[in-house]
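User: Need the bound-state model for iron/sulfur cluster:
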Amino acid sequence: MAKHKTPMLDDLEKGPWPSFVSDIKQQAEKGKQVLKDAPDDLLGVMELSYEDRVTHWKHGGIVGVFGYGGGVIGRYCDQPEKFPGVAHFHTMRVNQPASMFYKTDFLIGLCDLWEKYGSGLTNMHGSTGDIILLGTITDNLEPMFYDMTHELNQDLGGSGSNLRTPNCCVGRARCEWSCYDTQEACYQFTMEYQDELHRPAFPYKFKFKFDGCPNGCVASIARADMSVIGAWKDDIRIDQSAVQAYAGGELKPNGGAHSGKDWGKFDIMREVVDLCPTGCMWWDGKKLTIDNRECSRCMHCLNVMPRALRIGTETGASVLFGAKAPILEGAQMSTLTVPFMPMEPPYQELKDLIEKVWDWWMEEGKNRERLGELIQRDTWQKFLQIIEMEPDPRMVDEPRSNPYIFWREEEVEGGWTRDINEYRKKHQR
Amino acid sequence: MPYDPSDPLKDRITDIGPRYYKEFFPPVIEKNYGKWLYHEILEPGVLVHVSETGDEVYTVRVGAARLLSIEFLREICEVADKHCGGYLRFTTRNNIEFMVDDKAKVKPLMDDLKARKFAAGSNKFPIGGTGAGVTNIVHTQGWVHCHTPAIDASGIVKAVMDGVYDDFGKMRLPAQVRISLACCLNMCGAVHCSDIAILGIHRKPPMIDHEYIDKLCELPLAIAACPTAAIKPAKTEGGLKTLEVKAERCMFCGNCYTMCAAMPLADEQGSGVAILVGGKISNRVSKPKFSKVVIPFIANEPPRWPGTVEAVKNILDVYAKDAKKYERIGDWAERIGWERFFEKTNIPFSHHLIDDYRFAYTTWRQSTQFKF
Ligand code: HEM
Ligand code: HEM
Ligand code: SF4
Ligand code: SF4
Ligand code: SF4
Ligand code: SF4
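Assistant: Bound-state model below.
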């Protein structure tokens, strides 16, 4: 028998999409979690929110495991007498393996531990990428952490003003477009910066995300302070016979992604050549030609004809900085900073770059100022000096349209110190 | 040795990071790492990737609720043990992927997945989420676990996915449509570049618990937390230290409440949904773009948020009929013009939709190129 009546939530058991309500109920009924009442009381407090249309959680203050400043989010219920099972309901963020492949024995081990110490509820995964273990009491944090590190060889992820758990796309594990090893890069940066990840010392959060190509499956350009996006420098590899097969209708365009509707016969001119944003492509009825120097790697033609076109072989990544959600100066996407960098372990060039950026941000950044905001406040010019890079037209969409240039004295012939008396010899008062 | 509370630092292990990803690769992935030539979507939710070694991996992608119980996780593992040699993967959009290395194994896997239902009848493993359709919604915590939400997350996601369920399992749209939800404007879910974003917003400034605030909070921290400097120190009539919010400066972000529990702002009538559309991440054809606010407010309507579900379905349906192949929602709206977008979708245009924040004028129309 359910502990609370939840008529509104019960309505969410209907319909075809998997119902989280049914799932929490099955945990309440069959589960052996140590916090026995947590699933029932979670449903209870949610039903109350559905009635009141307001949340019943309070900010959790500082809770965590010894020596770490992140990885645990404190949470208390504002109706603890009614819902004692979730009165204290802290979550633990567990650093997911790069690109989220799992072996079942690991997941079962994690389930066993969460049964022993927690609510039996999870998020697979939080939006940064971590496995979220949803809800436990303060006393269980240390033993859970101890067992997880000892038995599963597995650590917590980041939260607070620190390096957040890095994330990457599926990359070379199962995608033909990945211009570098996104998993390896993600793993190595996670390991190199464990201290930054666990012990908050930054003005605010900092995120790395690794996309293998400009399709951007982990959304790094919108969501990471440092976005690493795969790129190639040489030519798109073309298999002309496969191009002909697409043009002739023998191969399904876009890997079959549009097969739910009849879009008519595939038209290589209209659907590929004319949509190329740089106009660097020609089709003469037999042969596809690409002026690769003019290609901006938008991925469209490769996406439409994956069997005919392949990324080049001189591969690496573009590095962009500064994306963030709207608070405070408005949303920002990352700005192109390094057009191309080879991406081979141990990634020393990228590590050197990021360390310069952090030193500056930790010195100059105000409390809760994201890197993108600091760059805006202190100027792109300053940022380039810090990272010791030359300006490049690829860093802007267009040159400035106002002429309010902040010239530096050393740039102006003769400097700024002048003699008014010399001037007056030629110009009357 | 188990954990010893009297000596917490004994045998302590720290800074070991995540498990090495390669430990979790199925053999066919391990063997063909970096060798994939191309992929094809065989039917909605089913992909084949072909390697230069000739190997193939078949992936069956299924939607999930993100909030998963360990009972259910154990069942997911059972499926993976039975069909996939004990391996599986999650995607960044909360989908689960079951992979097999032989075409003959696909059908038994799919039949098994389709047969599994929750007690009240919903599917445990809906197959889909590929190609030119709607994939799973990325979302945040809402009333399940956060203190600042203006809306729930899991419930709205469930209601919207029920509403657009057909488009999860079909590929009839001009291009992929990514829907995201964040329950307050802090946007943990970073919904600001989604084709359709469902965003929780508050519309009432925080209340202040004058008699208690000085006991509950560090007042300077609350003042400093406000991004618009709307909070200043004050005194109650009885002479107690308190704070005051300049209401017309408040942008309803809830940062003060994060610092100080004596400043709650969520409200039955004040808080609800805003809808944004037209953002994208991919560089394909056009550049990545931000989502734009097209519906400033829809009331919270638990348990099924019919107004929000209808709004999403309406935008999706008009787009499906009107856009050209490969055009994302934002590309379509830009081609036809936003004035046409509002006309075709029948969404009223109000003053709330004209930017009046920083750099507002960059979004005003400074040309005579408009449509009647
Ligand atoms: C035209 C642009 C895009 C193309 C052609 C494209 C292509 C693909 C392909 C082929 C996969 C499957 C990779 C694999 O697992 O083998 C994939 C997965 C994925 N993509 Fe993209 N992608 C595009 C844009 C995006 C964007 C803009 C986002 C995010 C906002 C995104 C998010 C994802 C995610 C999360 C997955 C994992 C599977 C899922 O849950 O749907 N993709 N994409
Ligand atoms: C001022 C801005 C922000 C504040 C104050 C904030 C605050 C919070 C809080 C309080 C939580 C805990 C929710 C819970 O109870 O579990 C949370 C979770 C989270 N935040 Fe943020 N957040 C902000 C911006 C962001 C942004 C921009 C991102 C991502 C781009 C992000 C990513 C996350 C993630 C991944 C979680 C985990 C919960 C989930 O996956 O839903 N946050 N944030
Ligand atoms: S970002 Fe590019 S390389 Fe990575 S999974 Fe997506 S399409 Fe493939
Ligand atoms: S990748 Fe884009 S820019 Fe380059 S040739 Fe193909 S369509 Fe043109
Ligand atoms: S989006 Fe806002 S309300 Fe939702 S989980 Fe994140 S911080 Fe909490
Ligand atoms: S809700 Fe945000 S803007 Fe309003 S007073 Fe609080 S911190 Fe300031």
